[in-house]
Amino acid sequence: MPRRSVRAFAATVAATALLLAGCSSEDSGTRSFTADNGTFEIPAQPERIVAIGRAVPSLPTTDAPLVGVVEYSEMVGITEEQEKTYEDLQKVGSGAELDYEKIASLEPDVIISGIPLRNFTKVDEDRLQSIAPTLSLGPLTPYEWKDLGEQQTDAAGVSGIFDDQKAEYEDRAAEIREEYKDKIDGVNFAAVEQADQGANGFTRQYTGGWITNIPEDVGLNFPGEGADTENNGATFTEALSSEKIPDLRDVDAIMYRAEADGSPVAGLEELLSQSAFQNLPAVEEGRILAVNGLWAETYAGALICLDSLEEALKNLPN
């Protein structure tokens, strides 16, 4: 059974388990929860959570009762208060490199993992399970942060906050789509990113990519398909040499990641300054979208991205 089908089946099983539990779940204070690595009894309302991997972006932005987290960057949308709370939390590692003794010392009642599925095997799961029920809810693809965020916050008992953010995001995306449909419909966009560290050239992202999945909710179209052997043959991204820059001559507009002030993120300057890039029709016509927050993995962060995207569409020539 394909992984996405397994995940959908698991979610159905989990929902059924919750229904069957009924009053007994409430009386015992626990409930059944199905993750990618099995079904577990977890607290109905956890009080001490350790978040690892990509569970970190979603849980701090929904004020989950965290006692420990891994080091994480690019947490778009986190408030100053939430950032301070995050900074004060015990750090239990980075990526799949975990400090198991520290995790145990925090006495969590549940551990929520967002470590990507291909890397979860690097974790000593048996040791984690001996500390507390450990739920594997890690992504296979960039856009799965939406479904996984819903599951992670459900497990943490803060789904109400998540649902509010999701509803606000969907309303904003629909508003922008309607307001700027004349600039979106029938337009072919290209999303470019800096090359991987140490590599030459650039990266282009297509449908479902790290920086395209939020704009797609507004209606932007990123045609094409890649085959990145460094990312398990993913079709949403492609590493290209600088000689491929002229291939962007056929697109109508080009999008890239920007800081809050509109300047390109570090690493993009070399691509953007090349004469081959400057001579592209889209660039010469000013059909460029510099968007902040494209790397967001939470609805709180995605709302910031939508604000920036709306401003970019507003300034996009007809």
UniProtKB/TrEMBL annotation:
GO biological process per UniProt: iron coordination entity transport
Location (main, coarse): other
Keyword Disulfide bond set for record: no
One Pfam short name: Peripla_BP_2
GO cellular component: outer membrane-bounded periplasmic space
Record localization: Cell envelope
Keyword field: Signal, Transport
InterPro entries linked: ABC_transptr_periplasmic_BD, Bact_iron-sidero_bind
Coiled coil residues, start to end: none
UniProt cross-references to PANTHER family, sorted A to Z: IRON III DICITRATE-BINDING PERIPLASMIC PROTEIN, IRON(III) DICITRATE-BINDING PERIPLASMIC PROTEIN
UniProt protein name: ABC-type Fe3+-hydroxamate transport system, periplasmic component
Lineage of the species this protein comes from: Bacteria, Bacillati, Actinomycetota, Actinomycetes, Mycobacteriales
